Amino acid sequence: MPKRVQRLRTKGWRKSKNCVIVSRPSRFDNPCKISLMEEMGYEDPHEAAVGNFKSWLSGSRFDWPTEEGDVRRERILSDLHLLRGMDLACTCPLDRACHADFLIERANLPSEELNDWILRIRVRVDQGRIRDNKEPFHVKEHLFAADDLRIGDMVRLIDGSLVTVLEIQRGDRGELTVNPGAPNQLNGKVWEHVTVIRKISKEQA
Ligand SMILES: [Zn+2]
């Protein structure tokens, strides 16, 4: 099982072959600095920095709603699979909380689960960007027949709100229900076309 190791800044410290450094200046570094959390008076600055890392990497734009923040998050997400099976080295002492533990947990999910998690984060980030009047990263707005809906699409409703398609159910007569049983359920009988925001792959773009 992959584990976290402490990266020492002393001469002669070497990482093993199946180990990736995830502290500064690696791309997997936690942008939330422990020293800042210390300054802000957190009792456990390590814990606070890890908490921020988790919510940021999971798609929250609350603390860092900038282009740089979104680009850095995406860089980690798209390379996360490279960490699978690897030990991760950070400068944090092993008895303190560290963002590397979260990276280990995520990177070693079954690939389908990991991809699904990343897809949901991308949708969340783009929803946040659209709310903040920024170009979404991954999606373009299109008119689709409801029949062509896919998981991960966002449907724009008449009031402008967005519903993410998580499940599609087709009835006997071909009628669609999006997210059956969920609070954001949509019944498709009345749809001719719906405005859908969808991730466009590189080939299609
Ligand atoms: Zn650390």
Short descriptors:
alpha+beta; SH3 type barrels; 2 domains; 4-stranded antiparallel beta sheet; 3-stranded parallel beta sheet; 5 helices; 10 strands; 19% strand; elongated; binds zinc ion
How far from one another are the termini?
39 Å
Number of domains: 2
Structural class: alpha+beta
| Percentage of β-strand residues | 15-25%
> Uncertain spans, ≥5 residues at pLDDT below 50?
none
The dominant shape is elongated
How would you sum up the major sheet?
4 strands, antiparallel
Radius of gyration: 20 Å
Q: Overview of this structure, please?
A:
The model has no long low-confidence stretch (mean pLDDT 86). This protein is α+β, with helices and mostly antiparallel strands. It has 2 domains: 4-131, no CATH class; 139-199, SH3 type barrels (Roll), CATH 2.30.30. Helix content is 30%, strand content 19%. It contains 5 helices and 10 strands; from the N terminus they run ββαααβααβββββββ. It has helices at 34-39, 45-57, 67-79, 99-107, 111-131, and strands at 4-6, 19-21, 87-90, 139-145, 154-156, 162-164, 168-170, 176-178, 186-187, 193-199. It starts with a strand and ends in a 6-residue tail after the last strand. Zinc ion binds at residues 23, 90, 92, 98-100.
Gist of the model:
By secondary structure, this protein is an alpha+beta fold.
Layout of helices and strands, plus pairs?
Layout: E1 4-6, E2 19-21, H1 34-39, H2 45-57, H3 67-79, E3 87-90, H4 99-107, H5 111-131, E4 139-145, E5 154-156, E6 162-164, E7 168-170, E8 176-178, E9 186-187, E10 193-199
Parallel strand pairs: 1-3, 2-3
Antiparallel strand pairs: 4-10, 5-6, 5-10, 7-8, 8-9
Bound molecules: zinc ion.
